[in-house]
Protein 1
Amino acid sequence: MFRGLAADRDELPGLLEHVQAHAAALLKAVGEREVVPPPPSPLPAPAALPAGGAGARAALEEFARRWEPRLSSSAGPRYLGFVTGGVTPAALVGDWLTGAWDQNSNSSLDGAGQELERETLGWLRELFGLSVEHHGTFVSGATMSNTVGLAVAREWLGERLGVSPAEDGTGPLGRVRVLSGSPHSSVAKALSMLGLGRRALVRVPLLPGREAVDPAALEAALREADGPCVVVANAGTVNTVDFDDLKAIAALRERYGFWLHVDAAFGAFAALSPEHAHLVAGLDLADSLCVDLHKWLNVPYDSAVQFTRRRDLQAAVFQNSAAYLGPLGDTPDTVHLTPENSHRLRALAAWFTLYAYGRDGHREIVERCVACARALGEAIEELPGLRLLAPVRLNVVCFTLAGDPTADRLAELAGRLSREVFVTPTVYDGVPALRAAFSNWRTTDADVRRIVTALRDAPR
């Protein structure tokens, strides 16, 4: 055995204690670090690869010296970009054990990991109020979740025509229409990967002053469509967390026979709050569904789930035939359900946080984040020079400059704020804006007060 490996193996208990102390100190201070540190100027040259290796302790020291000062505090309470959750203590325990056990949870030939994943999916299905007809799998994020859901939808389109795109390609489908009001960018990306093409996406008019689709306009688009369609509904849009009327859309499905995919990447968590659960009424009517867990469940990147009622079609798309793998069967192994042949035990971090804090603990996180977003929205309405662009419906605050809101001026403002709070740029209804997304379990009203002070003091 290479001498460095042997030395680290023999020292492993002490090494892990050293890393534990390092990580604990980092997380203790994460709320006070600069949220996005400025990059060094000039950037340091890349280090040379050590020929003989330096050992794990030396690697940690080098990482702490050269890279940690440049990393953002995305695990902290004032990183409000991209709907980024943190990592609950229990989820961190689960993630560390995921690395320690190093399971490839894809085959029933070594099936404990798959069984743990199925148990976790059952808890999530209950959490979001889905029916037992919804079967799920873990994937890397919302983009892959949307891709898997739309791949199943593509197979359903073929079923209507008596062909299988998984076997025959997409040619027999002809022109496919995917209708949506405010689709996330990952939907177009998925259509590109699936061979349906970005031009298959047809944007349907929205309700006035909203990001939610107009059901009457959607019905008109369905009437005009030639052949089966896919409808991508939103349960929580990026800019303003607006929600399509899922029940009304599902009622249209009874007349027009389309596949209903719901992108509920973070909006699905509204189901945890009695005050907001009405926003996702009808979520269980989806044919396929996307939920991102490294957002509001506060598990480490990368982690998401997808659900569908047609696991048979899902297996038709993703089945993997090899002598060393388990058979397809009535309960397909995970290897037959996603693009991945290798599949880390992502479920373990989710299992830990769900078991540790339950429905009530995660409901409290959701409701506290919503309260923080409302408080920031109310403060922005009172701050001179700023303007709220949309009601704070859930956990995102979309705002802009009261005068001359150019993209450059907003980027400058975001840059001035970045050491205290990180927000991301957007455009809403043609107006350049900033958005603050609350989804971190650490965030409290004290952080909102600090953000308001930073906004008040920032030159503009």
Note: The chain has 15 helices and eleven strands.
Protein 2
Amino acid sequence: MGIFKKPPFNSDKKRDFPEGLWQKCPSCNEMIHNLELVQNFRVCPKCDHHFTQSARERLEMLLDPNTFEEHDAGMTSVDTLKFTGMASYTERLKSYQKKTGLKDAVISGLGQMDGQRLSISVMDFNFIAATMGSVVGEKLTRCVERATKERLPVIIVSASGGARMYEGVLSLLQMAKTCGALALHGQAGLPYISVLTHPTTGGVSASFATVGDVIVAEPKAMIGFAGPRVIRETTHQDLPPNFQTAEFLEDHGLVDMIVHRKKLRDTLSNLLGYLTPTK
């Protein structure tokens, strides 16, 4: 009989592993340290999968340091319809406000990109899937109107699950309101660049996101109105390969160019230089 007894193997024992330090890439299954991911603009260093960026991370990436001036920061949504369900709309708003530190799903303001002043709005998918309600629509509209008044270009970075149905028809109204402001902006001879990220769907994709003078998309972003499953079940047809990806839409003329996130700032800066009228 042996002197030492081998301890039994316990497969149920959990490893002590700090939470929030590592993320698993959904494309290649690589484990990536969160610090490395942030330093790499939330792009997988192995397969180039583009993770979701917060609005503030994207503003920091795109704009010159210390040039962003936020507008309409205090606007918050109101539960006009008194929506009830598993959780009230008011409770859901408070939960996401606490979780993200945002009042709603978009940040808007003025800034500079390589010294060029612009009006910019960036949607944040972490806030109720960046759905567009009254506040999102109003902030986007004011962003465009401010640019028209000051004769500035507009950049809107979209990422959204569509219209915010907690607000019913009020959310759908924002589609027309944002497009109306952009139409007046275009009539003034001023450029609008739309940046589509993963995913951009629903009422957002059917309104301001796809009426840009130039439409830029990140690689493999899903862009469309209804989801592939809904379309397949409705039409009873097999969908084309890579349907509703940025690459598919570029081939079919909706997207003008696909730009890797690391090259996005330089590309947008060059586009602004080409399109913005000189005073």
Note: The two ends are 93 Å apart (CA to CA).
Protein 3
Amino acid sequence: MQSINPLNGEVIQNYTNHTFEEVSYKINAADTAFQHWKTTNFESRSNLLIKLAEVLRKRKQELAYLMANEMGKPLQQGTAEIEKCASCCQYYAKNGPDFLKDQLIQTEAQKTYVSFQPIGVVLAIMPWNFPFWQVFRFLCPALLAGNTAVLKHASNVPGCALAIEEIVREAGYPKDVFYTLLIDAKEVEKVIELPQISAVTLTGSTEAGKKVAAKAGGLIKKTVLELGGSDAYLILKDADLKQAAEICVTSRLINSGQSCIAAKRFIVVKEVADEFIRHFKSFMESKKVGDPLNEGINIGPLARLDLRDQLHQQVEKAISNGAKCILGGQIPALEGAFYPPTILTEISADNPAYYEEFFGPVAQIYVANDESEAIKIANSTSFGLGGAVFSNDLKRAESIAANDLQAGSCFVNAFVKSDPRLPFGGIKESGYGRELGLFGIHEFVNIKTVYIA
């Protein structure tokens, strides 16, 4: 396994994969540790989460550099990611114990209540695009609930994966409560088969999710899947168009466009389409592409050269099928896996781009005849992760967000983002289950009914 800098193609470090015997040993150790860890009190678990937040903040700059070098994230975005991880630790340290308190329910019995019990070792299969946040948003509630965990991270960020294990140890957690597994994707099925694995959480592509769900389902093991997205943002005729365009561009270019919940499709009603597109293009043109270690850079290299080339092929295919490229669309004359901010318009329903997820700084703009058609276009894909509505009629926009858009998260006059306080997840082929908030911590516990006659 290698860590390769997408800026220049240089090998940062070579890593030796864990053998399956080593993997089995670590999972056995995590299962044994679970027997004690589940009996520790909430005060002890909360204190360790607080310490975890302190370690993250202490190492914030170092970890941001690690992300920049391993997967191209601009430094400022990297430090923000670590801060978000620390805030998640603090949120569950403060609120997790209340979320897991017994819930009394009045029945004819002397006493009836719901108890929340940890279930064991949870396998996390995580992606490279937010190499710390994706892990910590699962890990914080899992550990607070009394579970133990093992991580199979993306193969291009082994340095981040091992750093997470170091951070957990440095915070004072028992050694066997958490392990990183350096294994290839082809070995995941064998890991899921191990009887010590109680559940699986995956953030990744829809195809990866289908394989994991099928395998775990055949073994009756719980899964939570956060999969691909092609988030649709609706811009209505009464929206503040300049502000909407700025927010939309910010969302499209989060993490250099490599985010499941980045805005990807912008559906604007025709009365205001020209003005919105003018503002949108201007904001896209203003973004700086370059070395993620340099100050003021908005877009670093994509995580791997093959991913950049795949994105460019999607753009070329979209254009060959009738789409119009009004910005970007060409591989720049820069060393590294760079791709410029790109805008595609005039995408018909028979264009492959209409149904695909573009994982990079490529925006699709659709012009709808009216609000009703805009909603129809938004819902016409297999994805259902997030969506947004821009309008000065807040009551109407809220109604569309709450009742009409088919997605797990819908925002009004803001871009979609995950927040430790709010449940996060998708519907349709964007996955199932929820992370974060009250609902997230209840995914990997036994919700047990206790009845006393």
Note: Residues 231-412 form a domain with the Aldehyde Dehydrogenase; Chain A, domain 2 fold (CATH 3.40.309.10).
Protein 4
Amino acid sequence: MVIPPAVRPPRLFDYLKPYEKALRETMEVTRDVAAASKIGRILGERLLIKDIPAVAIQMKKEQRYHGKVRAVIDSVREAGVKLL
């Protein structure tokens, strides 16, 4: 019996837009609060471009509103998207 090799999911980096690849290269660290803030700002701008003025955020009970989560949510709010 031959077991087929495991299928690896595609890398997220392969699906990034050219703008995002350039953003990743300019950032020294991609896993800190400043990086999360930039990502939130980009997300907020894209929501406004697609005419989505408000979004609802649902968090799990164990997830706290601090650190990277707070940076992303605050950046989306600062971009002009209303949070429900």
Note: The first strand starts at residue 54 and ends at 55.
